[in-house]
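Backbone-to-sequence.
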């Protein structure tokens, strides 16, 4: 152990209480491990020191120097063992677990509904009733006009937040599909956020998506055509495991299935977008070239497709690393920043969207930026219209997540 230099993997951290004590719950950001580890809040400094450059003894000494508190060796070693058991350190144990998970997922033909029974009911009847209530609220707040019902939307932006906070906002978007009297889309291209932040900008899968309502078929013919146009076809599936537990596409499939019903539900094309896609938009042809290839394939093989982006907006507050209380001024600044982004989207201005995001005035940690950018580059639309903007405030953690619904024609 004397030369052991542990390196913490990317984790999600959120506050909680255990036995009356403030702790931080650490979870694997990639979703590869479902094990959670509770760490005393005062140990966050120590975690930042476990970056692969220090032995445990060196981290112990540096922690004492910076904090002014002594950390006993047995306390440090117990904490390290708990983090190791949670597979939150890089190393052979995690690498072996990752190989096993990839092999298991590769053998599946259908992606199971990872969040049924957790984020929404696993019972189809209960799920339909829950969704029906969301659509009823949306219909009261924002009824569709005859002109809107006569047209089929070219694209939609919907949230990917949990149903409890964002359900009616989802419905504002998906009502544009359910109430349209035009023929149903021939394909749903669904861009989702890859919260695990894989290195690939865009990640495909050939697996169908199961939900309690039915099984959505993935259009492998479109994938075949896309692979013929893209030189690194296998690279598009390199991080396919990201699809296993990611909710951002699964939630869109559930709402689309309810909105269209089994008779009108078309096949889907599920595409996860990593945050690196926007970073690479100007500097690396892999990102832009893929979107060009996809746009050409859709124009040739699926001109009646509807493009959907599952996208939340700002994430601010203590849960996301901000200090201090969540103020009304911060909420107002986030809304102004979000609306600047949404205005660019309404104008189909993909470059302007990225420029507004780089400005980082108000809107911050926008996890849906890459799906929205991809939609603007691919959808055959002229303009968009904002249907709903909301902020979900969590007072316990002094945090906020914002989201919106939009329709494009």
């Amino acid at each position: 152990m004397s030369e052991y230099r542990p390196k913490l993997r990317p984790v999600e951290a959120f506050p909680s209480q255990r036995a009356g004590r403030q702790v931080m719950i650490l979870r694997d950001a990639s979703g590869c491990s479902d094990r959670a580890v509770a760490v005393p809040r005062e140990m966050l400094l120590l975690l930042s020191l476990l970056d692969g450059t220090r032995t445990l003894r060196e981290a112990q000494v540096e922690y004492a120097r910076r904090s002014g508190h002594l950390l006993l060796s047995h306390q440090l070693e117990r904490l390290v063992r708990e983090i190791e058991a949670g597979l939150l350190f890089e190393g052979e144990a995690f690498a072996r677990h990752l190989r096993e998970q990839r092999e298991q997922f590769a053998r599946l033909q259908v992606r199971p509904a990872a969040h049924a029974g957790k984020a929404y009911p696993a019972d189809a009847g209960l799920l339909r009733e829950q969704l029906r209530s969301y659509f009823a609220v949306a219909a009261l707040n924002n009824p569709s006009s005859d002109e809107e019902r006569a047209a089929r939307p070219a694209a939609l932006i919907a949230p990917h937040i949990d149903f409890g906070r964002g359900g009616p906002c989802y419905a504002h978007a998906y009502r544009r599909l359910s109430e349209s009297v035009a023929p149903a889309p021939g394909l749903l291209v669904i861009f989702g956020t890859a919260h695990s932040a894989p290195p690939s900008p865009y990640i495909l899968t050939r697996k169908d998506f199961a939900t309690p309502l039915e099984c959505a078929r993935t259009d492998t013919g479109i994938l075949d055509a896309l692979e013929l146009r893209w030189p690194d076809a296998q690279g598009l599936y390199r991080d396919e495991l990201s699809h296993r537990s990611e909710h951002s596409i699964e939630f869109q499939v559930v709402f689309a299935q309810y909105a269209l019903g089994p008779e009108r539900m078309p096949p889907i094309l599920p595409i996860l977008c990593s945050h690196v896609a926007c970073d690479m938009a100007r500097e690396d042809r892999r990102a832009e070239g893929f979107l060009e290839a996809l746009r050409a394939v859709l124009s040739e093989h699926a001109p009646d497709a509807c493009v959907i982006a599952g996208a939340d907006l700002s994430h601010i507050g203590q849960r996301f690393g901000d200090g201090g209380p969540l103020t009304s001024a911060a909420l107002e600044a986030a809304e102004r920043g979000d609306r600047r982004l949404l205005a660019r989207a309404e104008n189909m201005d993909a470059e302007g969207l990225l420029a507004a995001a780089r400005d980082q005035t108000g809107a911050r940690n926008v996890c849906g930026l890459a799906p929205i950018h991809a939609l603007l580059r691919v959808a055959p639309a002229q303009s968009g219209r904002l249907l709903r903007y909301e902020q979900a405030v969590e007072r316990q953690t002094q945090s906020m997540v914002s989201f919106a619904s939009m329709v494009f024609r």
